Amino acid sequence: MIIPKKVEAVLNQHLEMEANAVFNYLAVASWCEREGLEGCAKFYRDQSDEEHTHFMKFFDYINDVGEHAIVPAVKQPKSKFKNIKEVCEYSLKGEQAVTKSIYHIIKVAEEEGDKATIDFLRFFVDEQREEEVQFKRIIDRIKLIGDGPQSLYYIDKEFEKILNQKIKNAAKENNAG
Length: 177
Hints:
The protein is mostly helical. It is built from five helices and no strands.
């Protein structure tokens, strides 16, 4: 099965976003480690791993349908932040940009009558909704807890709790399948 050239082009453009997300999250993890936010750093390392998985799914899909996945150059990620709230807002903006890109791919695939790509992207539509909700909730928690020095301990524990819940949910899904 060969997909339309327009779809191939937007999929390859999206590969760049996924690759940048991998390194954006690693840069954030490094910032968190430097700030002593161990739970946040683990969370962001996990986010980076997840984005790598997404990158590979797009990469494999493009090649599987008989086209050519182009490995993109990666931009230097932002590495300095004022506080953890800014980090989370930065992360949310990144996820929103990825969502917008996925919707654009769907639009192009619909225009080109490419049902296979539309089916492939269903997983990512759901995934992006979850990611955006997750970061909105984290930002809301930070607003409740505050982001002062003494609040950072509780924020760090919240990130650890979120990561542990993600790991439990993934284990349940793996055991169910």
